[in-house]
Structure formats: C-alpha cells, structure tokens
Design brief:
11 helices; mainly alpha; 208 residues; Serine Threonine Protein Phosphatase 5, Tetratricopeptide repeat
Amino acid sequence: MENDAVRANWVKQGFVIVAGMAALLAMPVAAQRQSEGFTFLEAVRDRDGDKATQLLDQPGSTIINARDISTGETALHAVVQRRDLTWVRFLLQRGANPNIADRNGVTPLQQAAQLGFVDGVERLIQGGAQVDVSDQTGETPLISAIHRRDTAMIEVLVANGANPGRTDNSGRSARDYAQLLGENSAAVQAIARAEKSKGDSAKTYGPN
C-alpha cells in the first residue's frame, strides 16, 4: 500500500510538471517576450546589472527596448528619471533606441531636458536622440529649457542642433519665449552664445 501511495504521488508530480511545461509552450510568443521585457525593466529599476546583462545576452534578445505596458516607458526612461548616467551609457551601448516616446509622447531626451540632466542630454544626443523632438503640445526640449531658465541646457541643446525658431502648437518658438523674458535675458544670451560657438567651430582656417 505504501509503495502504491509513493508511486501515485510521483505520477501526480510528473503530471503537474508536464502540465506546466505544456502551458509554457502554449503561451503565445508575444506573451513570453512581454514577460521577459517586464523582468528586464524590473532589473533596470533595481539596478541589477548582472540580471539585465544576462537577459540581454540571450540569443535573439530584443528586450532592450521593452516598454512598460501601463506607461509606455522604456528602460532609458527609467534611468533618466533617476539621473543615472552610468545606466544611460550602458543601455545605449547595448542598442537602446533613445527616440521611443512613452504614452504621453515624451522621449528620454525630453525627460532629461525637463529634469535639467545636462550630462544625460549630451549622452543621449551622442546615442542618436533627436534634439528637436516635440511633445503633444509641440514643446521641444529647448522650449522646455527656456521655460525653466536653464541656460546650461539651452546652450547644450542649441550647440547640438536644436532650432530656436521651431514653434510649438501655439505658434511661438524657443526664441520667442526667450525674448518674452527680456531682450537681454539670460535665455536670449545663452542662445546667442551657443549659436556663435557653433558658427565659430564650423569655420575652417588655413595654415599659419
């Protein structure tokens, strides 16, 4: 009787294992990838570099651009939010797309500009981020920087190609907003310095 009970228990456990494997195999590929993406995003949020690297190193992995199903945020959004330059560099090196917007239409570069995260903005631009991207209101990172009177951010953005003449949905440009602060405001001067610096760097000189 005891042997029969043991045998029955093993059969039951075997059935559970087989059923579990069958359920996993039956899971749609998209659902499996979503689960892996969630695990990856959690690893990034927890600053678990070993786990994140392990997931990224899996053959055929595409989870570097996984998005949170509720917010649409990517791992880059998460690390920019905490102003973590080390993780920004890591994710970009692993192929993260810096131009994916969340559900509110905000990209990591826009987020970094709003936070005054200058180092993050510079690294995102180096990684291919579009500098003149606009949100749902047409606001660009440069317009955001002017609203916040962030002269360091203004200079970095203009130096890297941000267009002070690009308008938002109201028809006003970054230059317009800067001038509203005063014709000689710090924002106006920051734009002028960056434009002059960009112009000077574009000049070529002959041998002395």
